[in-house]
Amino acid sequence: MAIDTQTRYTAKDIVVLEGLEAVRRRPGMYIGSTDQRGLHHLIYEIVDNSVDEAMAGYCDSVEVTINADGSVLVSDDGRGIPVDIHPATQKSALETVMTTLHAGGKFGSGAYKVSGGLHGVGASVVNALASRMRVEVGRDNYTYYQEYSRGAPTTEVVQELGLGNRGTSIAYAPDPDIFPSLNYDFNAITEHLKQVAYLNRGLRIKIVSHRHAEQMKGDVERSYYFEGGLSDFVANLNRGRKTFQSEPFYFEKTVDATVVEAALQYNDSFHESIFSFANCISTEEGGTHLTGFRAALTRAINDYAKKQNLLKNDQANLSGDDVREGLTAVVSVKITDPQFEGQTKTKLGNAEVKSIVESAVVVALSQYLEEHPTEGRLIVSKCTTAQKAREAARKARELVQRKNALDGSSLPGKLADCSERNPALSELFIVEGESAGGSAKMGRDRRFQAILPIKGKILNVEKAARDKIIAHEEIRALIAALGANEGEEFDPDKLRYHKIIIMTDADVDGSHIRTLLLTFFFRGMLDLIRGAYLYIAQPPLYRIQVGRKVTYVYSDEEKDEVLAGMNGKRAIHLQRYKGLGEMNPEQLWETTMDPETRNLLSVVIEEGRGAAEAEKMFSELMGEEVAPRKKFIQAHAQSVKDLDI
After folding, report:
1. Cα angle: 316, vertex 319, 323; to 5 degrees
2. What is the domain count for the chain?
3. What pTM, to 2 d.p., does this model score?
4. Is residue 256 part of a domain?
5. In a shared domain, residues 288 and 166
6. What pLDDT sits at residue 16?
7. Looking at the annotation, which residues are catalytic?
């Protein structure tokens, strides 16, 4: 075998990145991305350090300022970063923390019993990705500061006589070489900070933005302070709903240095909304603390129901699904050595936390039910009603399964399936109406694209019990086509397609159908969204033809721009598509279905606002209560352009 000496792999090919150079070379490894999400992540990393001071009991307020030029200032009134000489680096501890990865007070030194900044890389990563940074520390009546550029110090640590102010202020400018755009989403940032304030009772968080002054018409300041903490969080999530308790149940208990907090309140909806956190980090995938909470809830309510003779002798115990229907809850634990599963810290793995949370919640909730008999009976009544609906849904599902077995197929007859059997290579288009479904079936690539037409508007699952949902024909067809079940039994590993694409008309009815489908997926198949399997097709609004040249445009603004550039040309033929059925199969393929030319929107739970904000949005806009929906429409009516009714 011949060896090409020009491509030999030797020691000189091994690149050693010094200091923070690795962060600048691969920023995505540390902050996820260099788009808006990464830009926000820089703020959150610095704020997390201030929150760690708050959880340790040394910080009462945090202030975030976004300047007009896109630079950011984060200040707190904590103890201030230490400035004395570090024994290992022989440099100021301030410089060590700001310029060294994995340097901080969170690795068993005793400075922090509880910390959200698990890896100790936050401040130094932000420094590495900033074109300039200045850190000021107030300690012992002195002010200390040091300046940096792209992670490297540009000054020594300077000491000046201070005014007695205590705390840390970090000002930085994101490096334009790393971040192509300084496009901050003010609402996303404020929602994230609001959530942090809920989780840290008594901490005041203020954000001021000069960069959004014009966009927000001068209203660029928000301040959050929640004396009730998690109780206020749950009450806010349940705002506009009919609740079974006048105020949320809340408790806090410390067991062997682990702090357990929980708040819960039942409402008249048919869905559970439980949000869990560990050291103020959102654990979207749950973990041992959530498992312990759910087990405690089921146990405490069953014990109470039996003790009060609220379950008939022959009645089965309430299941976990039964006791969680209509529940809004927040569970938060603060532990000294959190073990998160995965790089994204979305699932807590500490085995001992399950039993700690379960025992603490059982005792506290049992006592609450005993002391609040009216609320207790209402809660049990809600749970037993859910049990009856679940049993009816089970019978409906079994009936459908028996019918399918007799038919010899479990797939809906209206599904035009693809020949590809690898889910990772397969797509399902959920199409509005038979007309559009016909065009899509003829225009698709049968090898990997399946089509499921749906008839009319599906059931609004936000306002329907489980048995009604399962009995709905179009929803049953959708569940069968996807092959992964729904609700608690949903299993993304059984999905028959890894791209599920909603394709509806560009009118009011199409928007409504799309919203109903999104509501169903959020309530019944949340992991479908979390796994990034769900998309929305973007069909064109107009077809513009001049001679033989055809241009498709996807917005009124784009149409005006194209038409403005056609002055002096021949006759222009402009066609407005009001429905997918108006396009012939070739046009539908070319504009909306061809992977080479189409535009798809990925449906995700927005970073910053998270599932809690999405939960609130679906509840307000799709729930029974009219007032919150009316308020939303009034607030956003001016932003709707050219509404096509």
Report:
1. 120
2. 5
3. 0.79
4. yes
5. no
6. 45
7. 432, 505, 507, 509
